[in-house]
Backbone:
C-alpha cells in the first residue's frame, strides 16, 4: 500500500523549477554505494534490543553525508532536515526525523572506530578493481586547511595536530597531502600532517609503487633522489645506487640504476627560462587536475577550516570528505 502524500508534498511534486540542491542529491543517490558503506559500518552500529529501537543505519548515514556535503554542524543538519523537503526526501524521513544528538553520537561512533578511513580504503580498492584507477601515473600535491588560532584552553596550546607555517602570509592549521590518478583524477592516497611539514617529505606515502609517471609542483623538487621514494618505486628491474656528487659541496642521494619511472616536477619560478617555459606549462596543465580536487573540497563542499580540536577527528573528517569528492567526480 502506497503512503498517502501530504498537501505540501503534492505541491512540491508539481513545481516547475528543480533546485540545484535537489539535482545534486539525486546524482549522489545514484552514485554513492550506500549498501557497501553500510556493510562496513554495521558491525559497529547499535544492535536491536528490548528497549528503544535504533534509527535505521541508512537514514543516519545519509544524514551524516548531508552534513559533510554542506559543511553543517549537527544542529544545522537537523534544521535543514526539518525545513528542506528535498533533503527530507533524500534522507527518507517523514515526521520523526533524527535530532542533532542522535547525529552527534553516530558521528562520534564513526570517528572512534576510524570508519571514515576504512570506507576510503575499501572504496579505493573497488575503484582499482573496476579499472577507474589505472596505476600508470600519479599527481601529488598538498593544501593547507586553516585551524582556529585561539589558545583559550587549559594548556594554552594550538589545536592538536596543527602548527604554524608561512605561505604568502602566516597561517596555522593542518596540511592534506593527496595522490591522484593521472587519467581519472580519482584520489587513491591521503596523508594528514601539521601545516609545517614539507610536501616532499611525505611523497613516498602518496605513491602506490606501480607508477610510470609522477607529477608534482615545485614543492617536490628533488623527490626522485630521496631514498624512500626510490625504494617505493623500484620494481626489481633496477637497483638502488648511492651516489656522491663531487663538487665544492658533497651531495649524497639515491638514484635508480634503471629508472622505470619518469618524474615531471615543476621547477621553481626563479629557475624557469624562455627555453624551458613551454615544458613547464605542459607539466602544469597535466598536474592541474589535482587543483580541481581542492576546488571541490574548499569551494563546493566549503571546507576551508577545521571543525574539531583533535587531530584524529579532523583526519577522519577529511577522509570522508575526500571519499565524497571521489564520488562527486563520477557524476
Residues:
Amino acid at each position: 500500500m502506497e503512503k498517502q502524500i501530504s498537501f505540501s508534498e503534492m505541491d512540491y511534486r508539481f513545481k516547475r523549477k528543480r533546485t540545484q540542491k535537489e539535482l545534486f542529491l539525486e546524482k549522489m543517490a545514484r552514485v554513492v554505494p550506500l549498501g557497501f558503506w553500510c556493510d562496513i559500518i554495521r558491525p559497529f552500529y547499535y544492535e536491536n534490543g528490548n528497549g528503544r529501537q535504533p534509527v535505521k543505519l541508512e537514514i543516519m548515514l545519509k544524514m551524516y553525508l548531508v552534513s559533510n556535503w554542506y559543511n553543517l554542524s549537527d544542529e544545522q543538519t537537523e534544521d535543514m532536515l526539518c525545513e528542506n523537503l528535498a533533503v527530507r526526501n533524500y534522507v527518507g524521513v517523514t515526521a520523526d526525523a533524527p535530532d542533532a544528538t542522535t547525529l552527534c553520537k553516530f558521528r562520534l561512533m564513526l570517528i572512534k572506530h576510524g570508519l571514515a578511513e576504512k570506507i576510503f580504503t575499501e572504496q579505493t580498492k573497488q575503484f582499482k578493481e573496476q579499472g577507474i584507477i589505472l596505476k600508470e601515473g600519479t599527481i601529488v600535491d598538498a593544501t593547507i586547511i586553516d585551524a582556529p588560532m585561539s589558545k583559550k584552553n587549559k594548556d594554552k596550546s594550538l589545536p592538536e595536530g596543527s602548527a604554524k607555517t608561512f605561505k604568502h602570509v602566516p597561517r596555522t592549521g593542518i596540511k592534506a597531502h593527496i595522490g591522484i590518478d593521472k587519467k581519472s583524477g580519482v584520489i587513491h592516497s591521503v596523508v594528514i600532517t601539521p601545516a609545517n611539514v614539507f610536501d616532499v617529505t611525505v611523497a613516498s606515502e602518496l605513491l602506490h609503487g606501480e607508477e610510470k609517471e609522477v607529477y608534482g609542483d615545485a614543492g617536490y623538487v628533488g623527490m626522485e633522489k630521496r631514498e624512500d621514494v626510490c625504494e617505493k618505486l623500484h620494481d626489481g628491474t633496477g637497483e638502488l645506487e648511492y651516489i656522491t656528487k663531487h663538487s665544492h659541496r658533497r651531495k649524497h642521494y639515491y638514484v635508480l640504476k634503471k629508472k622505470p619511472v619518469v618524474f615531471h616536477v615543476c621547477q621553481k619560478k626563479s629557475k624557469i627560462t624562455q627555453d624551458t617555459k613551454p615544458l613547464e606549462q605542459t607539466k602544469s596543465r597535466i598536474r592541474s587536475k589535482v587543483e580541481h580536487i581542492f576546488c571541490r573540497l574548499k569551494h563546493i563542499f566549503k571546507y576551508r577550516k577545521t571543525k574539531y580540536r583533535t587531530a584524529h577527528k579532523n583526519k577522519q573528517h577529511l577522509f570522508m570528505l575526500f571519499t565524497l569528492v571521489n564520488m562527486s567526480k563520477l557524476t
In short: The first strand starts at residue 137 and ends at 146. The chain is about 40% helix and 15% strand.
